[in-house]
């Protein structure tokens, strides 16, 4: 199968201060479309959290704009009337309603676009369809996992992978069956996929499916952060911290795509 045939793109979104502007999610959609030209794109539009009712009017305007974009760009919108968070939206979308019909899914939060650097999508698809690897993550910051979370490295179907038990909620490609199994212990919890309560899920699934980080040389990073939560609030503050006198960018070093 080609990447466009094998992968459905899933992008969750929720209220942010910059709404009704769609510029954050627009960039994410545009960047993935550079890589996967005809793969179906599903937007999971969460309801409004009880503590974010002040954003409801802005978010309503955002959803209206997305409805127009859905017609223009052939997006599939799944709009949730109440707050579900990532785990419950995914559970509803891929398990309860079975909306995804491809064997693989690309998962990305609405403010973490892919970079322009090349990705061997066919190698990733072939590796995942082989069945031994359940998910392949793209790197944001370039920081390696902790030593006790690294389980070696391999090259398979021409793609270099660092095998790791570390789960980070950055853009990645999953086997659909792996993602469904990943969600099982979440039950009715409403949370991010990366949360302390269910930390270690990659390790629990390791005997059946391993998990890898796409690790091309010399530049491993394949995504960047547009920091959607801070946009619209004026000065978002420093996107870095100082460690031993050196600046470490929390969201990866600044990046501008080639539009």
Q: How would you characterize this protein structure?
A:
This protein is an alpha/beta fold and 259 residues long. It has a single domain, classed as Spore Coat Polysaccharide Biosynthesis Protein SpsA, Chain A, CATH 3.90.550.10. It has helices spanning 3-6, 23-35, 56-73, 85-96, 121-130, 176-183, 201-204, and strands at residues 7-13, 41-45, 76-79, 104-107, 133-137, 150-156, 159-164, 172-175, 210-214, 240-243, 246-249. The strands form 2 sheets. It has a 9-stranded mixed beta sheet, sandwiched between helices. Strands 10-11 form a two-stranded antiparallel ribbon. β1 (7-13), α2 and β2 (41-45) form a beta-alpha-beta unit. The chain is globular and about 50 Å long. 38% of the residues are buried. The mean pLDDT is 92.
Give the low-pLDDT segments: none
What class, by secondary structure content? alpha/beta
Tell me what portion of residues adopts beta-strand conformation. 15-25%
Give the % helix. Answer: 25-40%
- The ordered H/E elements are HEHEHEHEHEEEEHHEEE
CA distance, first residue to last residue: 29 Å
Q: What's the CATH class label? A: Alpha Beta
CATH architecture: Alpha-Beta Complex
């Amino acid at each position: 199968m080609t990447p466009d045939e094998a992968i459905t793109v899933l992008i969750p979104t929720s209220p942010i201060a910059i709404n009704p502007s769609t510029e954050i999610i627009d960039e994410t959609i545009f960047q993935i479309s550079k890589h996967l030209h005809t793969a179906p794109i599903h937007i999971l539009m969460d309801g409004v959290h009880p503590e974010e009712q002040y954003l409801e009017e802005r978010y309503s305007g955002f959803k209206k704009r997305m409805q127009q974009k859905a017609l223009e760009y052939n997006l599939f919108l799944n709009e949730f009337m109440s707050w579900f968070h990532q785990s419950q939206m995914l559970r509803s979308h891929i398990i309860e309603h079975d909306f995804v019909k491809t064997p693989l899914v690309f998962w990305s939060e609405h403010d973490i676009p892919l970079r322009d650097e090349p990705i061997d999508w066919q190698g990733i698809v072939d590796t995942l369809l082989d069945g031994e690897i359940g998910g392949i993550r793209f790197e944001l910051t370039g920081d390696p996992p902790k030593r006790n979370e690294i389980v070696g490295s391999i090259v398979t179907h021409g793609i270099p992978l660092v095998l790791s038990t570390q789960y980070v909620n950055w853009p990645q490609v999953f086997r659909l069956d792996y993602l469904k199994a990943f969600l099982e212990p979440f039950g009715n919890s409403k949370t991010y996929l990366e949360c302390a309560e269910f930390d270690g899920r990659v390790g629990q699934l390791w005997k059946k499916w391993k998990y890898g980080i796409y690790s091309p040389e010399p530049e491993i990073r394949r995504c960047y952060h547009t920091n959607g939560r801070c946009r619209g609030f004026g000065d978002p503050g420093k996107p870095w911290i100082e460690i031993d006198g050196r600046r470490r960018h929390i969201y990866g070093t600044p990046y501008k795509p080639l539009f």
